[in-house]
Amino acid sequence: MARTLIFRRSQGFSMVELLVALVFTMILMAGMATVFKSSLSTFYTSGESIASARRNRMSLDLLYDDLNSASMALTDISQWNDADFSTNNPPFYVQPNQPITNASATGPQTTDELYIFYEQPLPFEGELRTGGGAGNVGHTAQEAVELGLAITAADKQYEIDCKDASYAKTIQAGMRFKIKDSMNDGYFNIASVNIPTGDPTYVDINADLIPLRVSPPSLVAQSNLPTFKHIATSRVVFYLPGQLVRYRIEMRDLDPSNPTMVPCLVRSQDLYSTGGFPANPAQSSIIAENVSGFKLYLSADSGQSWVGGSNPSTGAAKGGYVGFPGWTLVRGDLDSQLAVSGRSGFTTTQGNEHWFRDIPTLVRLDITTRSATQREEYSNTPGVPAYKQLTQSVVLVPRHFGLPMTY
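Predicted structure:
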C-alpha cells in the first residue's frame, strides 16, 4: 500500500514581515541616534560652559589680588610723588581698545590694557641672625635699638634665615628687604647674595641702607649704613621694588598642529621704567585661554554710572577712546562724575597721578571667554557654527583706593 507524503509549510517570517520589522527598527534606531546626539551635545556644551566659568574665575581671582595691591608701598608711600613717574606711564591706568596683533577673523580685534604699579612682597619672611649690629655686647637688644648705637661698615653684612632652602634660592641682588624691628629706618638694597655651603636655608647678604626721604631734603642722611643697630631674631620682609603689571589679550600659538592662534589673557610683570612697559617675555604668563573680551570700567558715584572706553551695556567701543589718549578721555568722564558727586576737596583726577589714593573709585572688570570650538547649537543662524560666549565680572574698590596720602 502506498504511503501518502505530507509536506508541511516551514515556520518563520515572510519577506514582507521582515521588511516591515526592518522599517520599524530603523525608525527606532533613528530616534535613539537623535537622543544620543542630543545627549552628547548637551555633555559637550555643559562641559565647555563649566570650563569657561572656571577660566573666568581663576583670572578674576588673580586680577582681584593685583588690583588690591595697586599702589601698595613697602618702601614708604611718602617716597613716591609724581616726579617718580612719567606722564605716559602713571602708577595706574588703562589703554582702552588697543588692537590685538595677529588677531584672527573669528577672534577679538581689540583689548583693554590694564597697568598696575605696586611693590610685591615675597611669600615668606626671614629671621635676622646676624648683621646691622644685631646681638650687641653689653646691651640688651632693646637697648641697642633705643640708644641708636654706633655702627661700622661690617654692619652692612646680614645673615638671614629663610627657613627653607627653596625660599633662600629666590633671594636675588636688586631685591629689597626691611627689618621689622625698625620699619622707619629705611629699606635695604640687596647688592649681593651668597648661600653658605652646608646651610642652604641661610643667605649672606651685602646690603646698603637707603634712608627714607625727609623734609627738608638737606636733612637726608648721607651714609648708606643703618642709622641704628637691629634686634637679633627680628623678622625680615623681602620684596620686589617698583613692579609694573600689565593685563591684556594676546594671540598665542598653543597648538603646533593648528595654525590658528588662540586669544589668551596674558599677565606680564617687570621693574617699572619711566620709558614705558619693558614687556619682558620671561615675565609673562597666560592666565586664561580662549578669552574674547577684556574690558575695564570705573565709577566715582558708587556704581550709579560707569565710564570706560566701551559702552558697558553693549561692549561697543566709544569713538576716539583708543590707547593712552583714550585713557585721558576716560579720566575726563570720571571728572564729570566727580563734579556732581565727588568727595569734598577731591573733584578732579587732573594734576595728580595718585588721584586714586584720595578718591574712592569702584573698578569693574568684564572678562568674556568663549568655547574652544564653534558649534551650530551656539549660533542664532541655522547651519552656521559659532562660539559660545560667557561674561563674568568683578567689582571692587581696591584696598589702597580712597586712602589719602601726603607727599
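Summary: The CA atoms of residues 357 and 401 lie 5 Å apart.
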